[in-house]
Amino acid sequence: MNWLNELKVAFLNKNDNKINELLDNLPTLKTRDEMFEALAIFEEITSYAKEEKNKLTNEMRKLKQTKQFLPKQETSHRLNISF
User: Fold this and answer.
1) What is residue 72's three-state secondary structure?
2) Spatial contact of 24 and 16, defined as CB atoms under 8 Å apart
3) With contact defined as beta carbons under 8 Å apart, do 10 and 22 qualify?
4) Which candidate, 53, 45, 43, 38, places its Cα nearest to that of 13?
5) Is 7 exposed, middle or buried (0-12, 13-18, 19+ CB in 10 A)?
6) pLDDT value at residue 1
7) Which residues contact 41 (CB under 8 A, 6 or more apart)?
8) Cα(43)–Cα(71) distance, rounded to whole angstroms?
């Protein structure tokens, strides 16, 4: 399987590790069609990455709000069960 097809499969499977690995090892694209095809996939990957970043930002905001909502423990209370 060539690099471009591997990138397509990795993107369709949302395999972030494989996408990163393939992008780190970008080959020299030889034909104009390969270049345009790669550019289209890069645009899709960029859009996907932005969506994931937004999801993560929202989750982090929710966690921060939850943390602020919960009461803060000053000290941990130990249960003394010695006899």
Assistant:
1) coil
2) no
3) yes
4) 45
5) buried
6) 73
7) 4, 7, 8, 11
8) 44
pLDDT digits (tens, 9 = 90+) for 27-38: 999 999 999 999
What's the rounded mean pLDDT across residues 51-61? Answer: 96
- How far apart CA 24 and CA 58 sit, in angstroms, is 28
Percent of the chain at pLDDT > 90 equals 76
Provide the 8-state DSSP code for 31: S
Instruction: Find, among 45, 41, 52, 32, the residue nearest to 3 by Cα.
Output: 41
Q: What pLDDT score was predicted for residue 69? A: 80
Which of left, alpha, beta for 29 (phi over 0: left; psi -120 to 50: alpha)? beta
